Amino acid sequence: MMRFRQPSVIPGFGLTLGFTIAYFSLIILVPLIALVLRSAGIGWSGFWAAALDPRVLAALRTSFVTALIAAAINVVFGTLIAWVLVRYRFPGRRIFDAMVDLPFALPTAVAGISLTAIYAPNGIIGQLVAPLGWRIAYTPIGITIAMIFIGLPFVVRTIQPILEEVSKEVEEASATLGASRFQTISRVLLPSLTPAILTGFALAFARAVGEYGSVIFIAGNIPFVSEIAPLLIVIRLEEFNYQGAAVIATVMLVISFLMLFVLNLIQAWSRRRYGYGS
Q1: What are 111-168's pLDDT values in tens digits?
Q2: Is the model's pLDDT at 253 over the cut of 60?
Q3: Which one, of 160, 161, 162, 188, lies nearest residue 173 by Cα?
Q4: How far apart are the two ends of the chain, measured CA to CA in Å?
Q5: DSSP three-state, residue 278
Q6: Residue 56 clears pLDDT 70, i.e. is over it
Q7: pLDDT at residue 18 is higher than 60
Q8: ∠ CA 67-72-74 to the nearest 5 degrees?
Q9: Residue 199 in contact with residue 267, Cβ under 8 Å?
Q10: CA–CA gap between residue 216 and residue 198 (Å, rounded)
Q11: What are the TM regions of this chain, as residue ranges (predicted)?
Q12: What is the CB-side half-sphere exposure of residue 117 using CA atoms within 13 A?
């Protein structure tokens, strides 16, 4: 017989479990179920016709590909930033550490306008690369930069506390036993950081794929080129095509859920494989 209740000195399991299920259902499950039911109202043929529309597929591809690229870049540089903040002491470190959280507090529209002013053809950086025939703003590259901006704190703040728990003595012991720097990183540090890295990647990806405010200004919103799926949902709503908007949202929901589910499986395997976490 399965036991759902674990022994605890603190009472209230039934009450807290009931509250958790009710809160989770009202805040997450009910809206998602309503979304799926709304999209299913046009029937399977109508659903697939709306989902497989070339413009919808192009917008989905732009959103997910740029979000994946941005999350991957954030994993590399976010890990490096977390390492510097944890392992080194230097003047201005606290200020630099606080600035990492700016994308959390900054309104997304302000971030989008600022990035556009920098990377537009007449911007500070845009005008430097324009003579080379390169365009950053109003292209998928600009979308990726905006997603990197808003996703970086998720990676840094996820990896940073894990790095703080990894003692320097572990690295020194590895070097004492004759391991090279690459072996110390790949066989000592990375196994302990892998679950946190995957979590940071998943959070950055989830944040980026649904981003709207900071992206629409720098994207240019050109169909089949730089139009993102969240913007296309807004366009469908403005056209009073509510079921079409629900279809796009449902497809994004399914794809995001499957990708995050796979990442969670890999994360769980990593914890069992290397013995970190519970």
Answers
A1: 889 999 899 888 889 888 888 888 899 999 999 999 999 999 999 999 999 888 877 7
A2: yes
A3: 188
A4: 23
A5: coil
A6: yes
A7: yes
A8: 95
A9: yes
A10: 27
A11: 12-37, 64-86, 98-120, 132-156, 188-209, 215-235, 247-269
A12: 6
**Taking Cα atoms as reference points, which of 231, 202, 206, 213 lies closest to residue 58?**
231
Closest CA to 251 of 24, 48, 54, 30: 48
Task: Evaluate if residue 226 carries a pLDDT over 60.
Answer: yes
Which positions ≥6 away from 135 have C-beta within 8 Å? 121, 126, 129, 141
Nearest Cα residue to 118 out of 153, 140, 142, 144: 142
Q: How far is CA 167 from CA 30, 34, 81, 185, 270, in A?
A: 45, 48, 18, 13, 20
C-alpha to C-alpha distance for 220 and 231, rounded to whole angstroms: 11
**If phi over 0 gives left and psi between -120 and 50 gives alpha, with beta otherwise, what is residue 196?**
alpha
Cβ atoms of 64 and 71 within 8 Å: the answer is: no
Residues ≥6 apart with Cβ < 8 Å to 159: 78, 79, 82, 193, 196, 197, 200
DSSP type of residue 264: H
Query: Exposed, middle or buried: residue 168 (CB in 10 Å: 0-12, 13-18, 19+)?
Result: exposed
* Nearest alpha carbon to residue 135 among 215, 143, 58: 143
Is the pLDDT at 171 greater than 50, yes or no?
yes
What percent of the chain stands above pLDDT 70? 93
Pick the CATH number of 61-229 from 2.60.40.10, 3.40.50.1000, 1.10.10.10, 1.10.3720.10: 1.10.3720.10
Specify the pTM: 0.85
What the block records as the tokens of 214 is: 């900071």
